[in-house]
Design brief:
Enzyme I, Chain A, domain 2, four-stranded mixed β-sheet, 6 helices, 4 strands
Length: 192
């Protein structure tokens, strides 16, 4: 669900990620947390659905990375390429499949399998490794949305706007039309 700002003249201040100033209407990005109870995520059907979700998320990441690379954003493309590589890690599919066979739904199995890896990265003394924890959690979120048939990108704003969100992952912003997004303001996250 998205909405335009209804409070004219509201000024928001924050940590700048890029130089300059921008004035535009606000467009709120709300994360959908809808669950489709009709989706079978347990047993062999859950494993099959997870395998399909892994392929779909990897294809989407690869496509977005190629688009970013073509548009002169190689650093951002590199983040998505690294996320796509995370999906090749046998620990993901093997660990989650084992938990699914024990009766866990696929979405919970993915989270339980990947949580220790995210915690290990977050506990690192190296800021680069700490940042990778967010990338890993984004991959888990992408798999969760795909398992439940939820799009990771809401319909775009109708006019150039500042995207307002709780937090945005690189995989989410990569799909946005740069002509319609003139800035970002997030509650969480960093300048990078």
């Amino acid at each position: 669900m998205t909405s335009a700002s209804k409070v004219a003249g509201t000024e928001l201040r924050g940590i700048a990620a890029a130089p300059g100033r921008v004035a535009a209407p606000a467009w709120r990005w709300d994360v959908r947390r809808v669950r489709d109870d009709a989706v079978d995520l347990i047993g062999e059907a859950g494993i099959t659905r997870l395998q399909i979700a892994v392929r779909e998320v990897k294809a989407a990441l690869t496509s977005k990375a190629a688009r970013l690379e073509a548009n002169g954003a190689p650093s951002e493309a590199g983040i998505l390429e690294a996320q796509a590589l995370m999906l090749d890690d046998p620990a993901l599919l093997d660990g989650a499949s084992e938990l699914i066979r024990k009766g866990n739904p696929a979405d919970a199995a993915v989270k339980a399998t990947m949580a220790p890896f995210a915690e290990m990265l977050r506990a690192s003394d190296d800021a680069i490794f700490q940042a990778r924890a967010a990338d890993l959690e984004d991959v888990v979120d992408q798999l969760d949305r795909t398992l439940h048939g939820i799009s990771d990108t809401p319909p775009p704003p109708e006019r150039p706007s500042i995207v307002i969100a709780r937090d945005l992952a690189p995989s989410q912003t990569a799909g946005l039309d740069r002509a319609l997004v003139v800035g970002f303001a997030t509650e969480q996250g960093t300048a990078t």
